[in-house]
Design goal:
Helix content: over 70%
Number of strands: 0
Number of helices: 6
Mean pLDDT: 83
Structural class: mainly alpha
Order of helices and strands: HHHHHH
Distance between the termini: 58 Å
Strand content: under 5%
Shape: flat
Amino acid sequence: MKYKTQNGTSALIAVFWLGIAVALGGTVAGLIVDESWILKALLIPGILVSMLCWSKLRAANNNADTAPEEELDEYERSVLSTWRKRTLSAYSLLTGIGGFAFLLTGSLRDAPDSTALTAAGYFMLFTFLIVYPLPMIGYAITFNRKED
């Protein structure tokens, strides 16, 4: 199957997300059912399928997402820049909300695992607070230099 066609690309992306859904669904179901290692074991094939699809997708597109800027044309740079901005927004939203949810759950819950939940919340919030401002910090450092 040729992967650098619209159908091939769509198939790889669909199977990638299906693998992620199987891994996530099995993990969540295993946690809900309490100690169901069979459901949690779905994580492994789901992630492996996703990794395989991701690798094939990147190879079919010459690893353009990590290629040096000078190897890309203007349109490719623009597309990657747009998707990097969208990714940063999604990442920021998910870590901010996730961190707050973990922190709140860990703080309100009186159970042996509440410390771990609180720690996970702090980790996610601090990851958000460290990563989210980096583009503006880089911009400010680059364009707000002291003029000689």
